TrEMBL record:
Protein name per the record: Thiosulfohydrolase SoxB
Family indicated by similarity: Belongs to the 5'-nucleotidase family.
Record-linked Pfam families: 5_nucleotid_C
Name of the encoding gene: soxB
Keywords attached to this entry: Hydrolase, Nucleotide-binding
Originating organism: Massilia rubra
Domain 5'-Nucleotidase C-terminal: 395-532
Domain of life where this protein originates: Bacteria
Length: 570
């Protein structure tokens, strides 16, 4: 470390309120060590996913609860905290430990600063490309949704940023919530001749014709490589069907095998899948489809430092997942000789904005696209006394804030908030700006609702969502987290059978009556024709009245049968 880097480190540490000589001090960050990744092999892929439209650096707290059940218990990606660090041999109290876990979040966030930001990501992409001739940049989707500016520009801010970043190939999920016509407009105009938008599992509902190219083959350093797209399989279920009424999705495992075989027959010596399945689904697919060298995955936001190597009938497949919010860049290098992959190198690099200078061209673009909205984004709604975050199987403090606001403003007995995985984090004593609220709520269907539901209906909803999360067959998991619940308590046994996971539902300490109707507030209904005040208006109204938001007490279910599970930080 040179003198300038050392001086920068002193400033970063002092800003974090640390005594560097104390035992509690976090490990010294070394920018050179983090990003000193020598070239390996002759085929190179750079991969990011699930940035959720975060153009500027943010804080993002990784989950303290990410349960694996059945065969997935105790295995990647269902390891958190110290269990994760031990598995991948990352030292505690280091920048990498902060990037991959929720341990000492507040102190580490203040010490190491924010993560992500497209201007800093652009610098890292250029650095990795400089030593990797022909490297392809792959975007795993969930790029055009997740911020106020992405919503208000119909994704154009992110389309322009992706083009400037140099994305070569992309697949999708939340992009579809802009509507089929908008997606086709971007693919047909903005991306034409520049970005290959691939999805082997999206076809028309009438004749089953492919909507997008299933794959693309490119030559890199004399080696033909194929990238097959896998869009989120459950888009019409997890999101409103009316937004893509004429398109069919699904996992389409048989067609995936067909596409792999077809690409190989056309000469591809390396085949990778750019996937938005979620990691558990990718692991199962890797065990059943032959001929895939690697699956570069997304959707479940798992930052997985090392690939999982899965054996199948045709050999072995690497399965990766590259986190979210623009805070990671995956770098996969293959050594291909004699038409075969001989070896590989993989690194999931955290994007620390303090350690990477901002790319000037990207910074200028970001400033330009945000300019018309700055006043709205920067409205100070309140101040939070506690950390606000979203991420984890059952609840987060920002989710809790939303359901607390919904119950109070709507006069509800109970509130539900979707188990979305996107949404940035705020440190204690931070202002809550309109931008931060939009980071949690910005979708094209964020209507707030107030509905009467019987106790029986409430149980059915909770059971359905629990099965989406904890079904032992990954192909039946839809990859979200459990619906966040306000007002009532309940118990859950993730290992139980479908329909028998939820029990002991209580409101104010009294058991819910199966036949009694309760007022339930919620938002983001997927049914066509739903209307209501935008949820950000409801929550903003509440925040303006509060002015100061006290630390939120999480309403989480009582877990049954999960003691000792390494997917929980005790």
């Amino acid at each position: 470390m040179n003198r300038r880097e050392f001086a920068q480190l002193m400033g970063i540490a002092a800003a974090g309120g640390m005594l560097l000589g104390s035992k509690a001090a976090l490990g010294a960050p070394s920018p050179g060590a983090l990003y000193d990744l020598a070239r390996f092999g002759n085929v190179h892929f750079l991969h990011f996913t699930d940035c959720h439209a975060q153009l500027n650096p943010v804080h993002f707290r990784e989950p303290s609860v990410n349960l694996g059940i059945g065969q997935a218990a105790g295995k990647m990606p269902h390891l958190v905290g110290e269990a994760l660090l031990k598995q991948v041999n990352i030292k505690p109290n280091t920048p990498q430990a902060h990037a991959f876990t929720a341990l000492h979040f507040e102190q580490a966030a203040r010490t190491y600063g924010k993560v992500g930001g497209f201007a800093h990501l652009a610098t890292l992409v250029k650095q990795m490309r400089a030593g990797r001739p022909g490297a392809l940049l792959l975007d795993g989707g969930d790029t055009w949704q997740g911020s106020g500016t992405a919503l208000w520009t119909k994704g154009q801010d992110m389309v322009d940023a992706g083009l400037l970043l140099g994305v070569d190939v992309m697949t999708a999920h939340w992009e579809m919530t802009l509507g089929d016509k908008r997606v086709q407009e971007i693919v047909g105009k903005d991306f034409k001749g520049k970005v290959d938008f691939v999805a082997q599992n999206v076809s028309t509902t009438d004749f089953g014709d492919p909507v997008f190219a299933p794959y693309v083959i490119k030559e890199m350093n004399g080696v033909p490589v194929a990238i097959i797209g896998q869009a989120f399989p459950y888009t019409p279920i997890a999101n409103p069907r009316y937004l893509t009424p004429d398109w069919s999705f699904g996992i389409q495992e048989e067609n995936m095998q067909k596409m792999v075989d077809e690409a190989r027959a056309k000469g591809a010596k390396v085949v990778v899948v750019l996937s938005h399945n979620g990691m558990d689904v990718d692991l199962k697919m890797a065990s059943r489809v032959r001929g895939i060298d690697a699956i570069l995955g997304g959707h479940t936001h798992d930052g997985v430092p090392q690939p999982v190597i899965v054996a199948n009938g045709g050999g072995k497949t690497l399965v990766t997942n590259a986190g979210s919010n623009g805070k990671f860049l995956g770098v996969l290098d293959f050594d291909v000789r004699g038409g075969q992959v001989r070896n590989f190198q993989y690194r999931l690099l955290p994007v620390f904005s303090n350690f990477l200078p901002a790319d000037k061209d990207m910074a200028a673009l970001i400033k330009k696209v945000r300019a018309p909205y700055e006043a709205k984004l920067n409205e100070k709604l309140a101040v939070t006394q506690g950390t606000l975050y979203r991420r984890g199987n059952f609840n987060g403090t920002f989710d809790q804030l939303i359901i607390d606001a919904l119950m109070e403003v709507k006069g509800a007995d109970i509130a539900f908030s979707p188990g979305f995985r996107w949404g940035t984090s705020l440190l204690p004593d931070s202002p809550i700006l309109m931008e931060h609220l939009m980071d949690q709520t910005a979708t094209t269907y964020s209507y707030s609702t107030l509905t009467e539901m019987t106790g029986s209906t409430i149980k059915t909803i909770l059971e359905d969502v629990a099965d989406n999360l904890f079904n032992p067959d990954p192909y039946y998991q839809q990859g979200g987290d459990m619906v966040r619940v306000g007002g009532m308590s309940y118990a859950i046994d993730p290992n139980a059978a479908m329909g028998a996971r939820i029990s002991d539902m209580r409101l104010h300490g009294k058991p819910l009556d199966a036949g009694k109707a309760y007022k339930v507030a919620g938002w983001a209904p997927v049914a066509e024709g739903a209307t209501g005040e935008p949820v950000w208006d409801v929550v903003a109204q509440w925040l303006r009245q509060q002015k100061t938001v006290t630390p939120r007490k999480l309403n989480t279910p009582r877990l049954i049968g999960m003691r000792g599970n390494p997917g929980i930080i005790a």
